[in-house]
Amino acid sequence: MGPLLELYTGFLSIILIGLLGIRFLKPKEEKAAYRSNYSPKALVIVPCRGLDITLEKNLASAKMQDYENFNIIGVVDTEKDPAVAVLKKVGINYIVSAPELLHVFPNSSGKVRALTTAFERFRNVDVYVVLDSDVQCSRNWLSMLVAPLADKSVGASTSFPYFRPMGGFWSKVKSVWGLVGNGLMENKKTRFAWGGSMAFRKSLITKKFIKAFGDSVSDDIMITKEVKRKKLKVAYVKDIATVNSYDDFPMFFEWSNRQTALSALEYRKNLKVGIIFYSARILLMASALVLAYYISILYAVFFAPLLLNIAAALKKPKEIYPSFLFILLFIDFIYLINLVLAIRTTSITWRGRKYRLL
What we know:
- It is a single chain.
- By secondary structure, the protein is of the alpha/beta class.
- It folds into two domains: about 5-25 and about 270-350, no CATH class; about 40-160 and about 195-250, Spore Coat Polysaccharide Biosynthesis Protein SpsA, Chain A (Alpha-Beta Complex).
- It is about 45% helix and about 15% strand.
- The chain contains 14 helices and twelve strands.
- It has helices at about 5-25, 55-65, 85-90, 100-105, 110-120, 140-145, 170-175, 180-185, 205-215, 220-230, 250-265, 270-295, 305-315, 320-345, and strands at about 40-45, 70-75, 95, 125-130, 135, 155-160, 160-165, 195-200, 235, 245, 345-350, 355.
- The strands form three sheets. A seven-stranded mixed beta sheet has the order 3-2-1-4-8-6-9, with helices on both faces.
């Protein structure tokens, strides 16, 4: 073994030890408290736009909760939205987003305007709950999501979805890509209140907050920031993962780049950390492949982080497809591309509208 190879092997060994340390020495996951007798008055807000692939099932699951002290309201942009017919069929009341908000808050997303409208019209509640129209939830979803708020140190509670593929290859890539969200949620430093399934105290929604929230693009990031500003915690309820069903997904990269850019609004300082982390994993994997083939099979030890990552990832999905194993071999490359692009992203296009990322 030449001196350069020895030096490079030592460098790879440091990366290996670091990655294994991150995996095995990470803080113990916090378990969200659950109190079945805690049932403050809750309003479930479901912003709707268009016909999601399983919209009727999603809305029906939201309505049929085992939590008694709640009301549910759909919010649409216009009476002509096709989601209105489904809301009526399922028996969920709905309101139309206040049109004047688009002039008051020109940079706001449609979802932010929908939530702002609901906040203004429904104030006689203790807890606001936000549920995306493209997810299906279990019968105990609401009771378990609200339960952590019994702890006064918790400002918001959230779960994270399982992306159920109902289409071709790229729909399965999206499913695997989403597994990184579970890791973010399990770590209290990177956890955020995911806007597709979150509950938070009404006390967060002040006039000052509405002024900042109303002109934002991302509802979940703004809620997360307000919770942290008040020095409260975000609780993660792992056991009530909602299910997001979708068909083929040819626009995967547009979607994943947008999701990463939105997340970066809160964690922009961590983008470089993420780039270093995924670059290290890719370098170790590529080096293990080349060195094990050309030098010695002993270099295969550097595959350890990849194999551990695959084993851990395959425990998370509710359903496993053979292609998941193949996708997990290159998913780090996609994460790295998303992060690099997020650094330079100043605007996104979402459902036909362009938004500035403030």
